[in-house]
Amino acid sequence: MTTMTKGYAALASDGDLELFDVPRRDLRPDDVSIDILYCGVCHSDLHEARNDWGFSNYPMVPGHEIVGRVQSVGSGVTSFKPGDLVGVGCYVDSCRECRPCEIGEESYCENWPTATYGSVDRHDGMPTYGGYSKHIVVSDKFVLRVPASLDLKSAGPLLCAGITTYAPLRHWKVGPEHKVAVAGLGGLGHLALKFAKAMGAEVTLFTRSPDKAEEARRLGADHIVISTDEAQMAATANAFDFVIDTIPSAHDLNPYITSLRLDGKLILLGMLEPIDPPLHGGLLMLGRKAVVSSNVGGIRETQDMLDFCAEHGITCDVEMIAMQDINVAFERLRRGDVHYRFVIDMATLGEK
What we know:
The chain has helices at residues 43-49, 99-102, 152-155, 161-171, 187-198, 213-219, 230-234, 254-258, 281-286, 299-312, 326-335, and strands at residues 2-10, 17-25, 31-41, 66-73, 85-88, 91-93, 114-115, 135-139, 144-145, 179-183, 202-207, 223-226, 240-245, 260-268, 290-293, 318-322, 341-345.
C-alpha cells in the first residue's frame, strides 16, 4: 500500500521540474517516516534530471541531502522516535551481506546500493523518489541522527558534499602533521577547506581566481596559490601530502602531481569522466605518488562526520530557495552561480 505526498519531479530530460504526486510506501517494521524540512540541491540532481549520464529514469524526484523530523516509526524501530531530527543521504539501502556492507561501507556495496532517487527498491521493486518532496519513508539503518547544535538549513548538504570530502580525509588519516591542498572552491572545495583545517592540517587553496583569496582564508585556507601563475605553481613542487581535487571537469592533473611530496596522494572527487590530458607516469614513479578517489562514506562514517561538524561548528554555506524556484536554481547551477549550495525550504511546497 502507498500514500501520496507532494513533490517536484522531472518527467523528461528536456523539461522543467513540476509539481508531482509522490507515492510513499506504508511503514515496514524497520521503517522511519520523515517529514522533510530542507533538501539540498546537488549538482548530480541536475545531471540526473537532464540525463547527462545516460541512465536516468522518469518520473524522477531528485534530492539526497535531506533533513527532517521523524513523524512515525515501524514496529521494530528502537533507534528513532517521533520528533527526532534526522537526515537521509545518497543511499537508502544496500545488500547488507557483501564485505563492504559488513564493514560499514555501504556506498561500496558489491551488489550496488539503492540510491535515494532514480533507483529501485530491493524489496518491492518500486522506484525510489528523493527529497524534493514533503515526506519520505526510509529504513532505519539508513537514517542519520542530526545533532541539535547543527543549523538545520545548512546540514543537508553535509550528507553529500560533506561526506564526500570528509571520507577521504579520514581514510588517509589527515592530521596536524600534514600539508593539504584543495583544488577548486565550490560545494565540495569549501567544505574540504573547513574539514582539513579542523583536522589540524596546514591548508592551501589552488584557484584560478585571485579574488577568491579572502573568501578562502575565511573558510580556513592558510595559503592561496593561483594555479595560472607559473611561478606560484613552480614554488609548490614537493610541497603537499595530499591534494584534494574537486574540479568537476577534465583538466590537467600533472601540475598537482608535481606539487606532491614523496608518497603524496592526489584525491579526485569532482571529475567523473576520463582523465584528459593523460597522466605522466614519470611524475608518479619518481615520488612514489598515487592518484586515488573516493565515494561518499558509509552510514557509520557519515554519522561520525555529522558529529564532527557539530563539535567543530562546521556547516555548508548555503543559499535558501523556495521549491517553486528549482528550475531557476538549476539554470544558475549549470552556470556555476551558487554560493556554495542551494537548499530548498520544503515549507514553501505548500505555497503558490
